[in-house]
Structure prediction request, 359 residues.
Amino acid sequence: MKIKQLHIQNYKSLVDFKLENLPAFAAVVGPNASGKSNIFEALEFTNYVCRFPFEATSFFGGLKNIYSYQATPGKKMSFYYKFDNDININFSLGITPQRNLDGFEDVYSIGQEPILDLGKEENPFLFLDIRDKNKRDNFLEVVRQKHLTYNNEFEIFIDNFSRLLVGKTFLNRSFQLQSRLHTNASNLSQILAQILDSEKKDDFFEWLRILIPEFRDIEIRKSNIDGSSEFFLYEMTSTRPFSRHLISDGTFNILSLMAAVFQNENPQFLCIEEPEYGLHPQAIELLVNFLREKSEEKGHHILLNTHSQTLVRCLEPHEIILVNKVNGATIAKQLTADNAVNIKTDEAWLSNAFGGGVL
Prediction:
């Protein structure tokens, strides 16, 4: 899965933000308050608009909290995604806020354009039609009849999107699916139970033993009272298990990141914030290799954001998107293989040899 073009306007600091030819595995790199999280939140917001068109803004604190301060009055928030297919598959969404004398109302209109450019179709397939199974099936049938190549990118983005920032409870929004890891990993026990009850268990355990050298086993205990689950971790040198409250933040982070990748066999769109949290430098390197490998193997689109020197050192130049904020607006510089230098990637970044993503 690959995004050919991304264009976001007037969402927080993303006044006129553009990315092109986004690799399947990449990292957004930049200083604090440069807008890295806003990029991921804008992707998440688009997903929510599709699922809850006229309630979506309420999950993000209301329109007044996401509409850019830099926007010209009356301008809409717009989100344009073009996927890398043989056909012109893209979707465009425009949200126009309505104002009153006191400022913003949380009221808006949604404008849409046809998802697939097949010429003049009597019943074009629009952004919000993805929620309608019959319209979705009809759209796929048109694609098959015309013998076009379509890799389900739009459906992957809507159906299998996850944003993860472990431990940040304020990011845990309402109506998150129970079958998918929540943004703050609060339902980790439930997702681990699903993984351990599947054919993915052996592969999952093999990677855990690489990233957590003392790891031996995981046990899921289910409450007879309310049906809730709790996981316990066993180490090589101990016969007694460790509950969630006894393991380190780094170990919990590793379990969460691994669970996010293994929660679905189908291709996913994963936005992972600060994956380096609580991890040893060697574990960070192993984790980057794991995420890169699973992206290639399973067709996942995995985006990271970071300001970790150790993580940047593990990246290839073409996997790096540098961001800075200029006059209140987030801007991006995408690196390519041509940006390779004769020093380590992190040194080139922090010395500003790449020309961006620094204080």
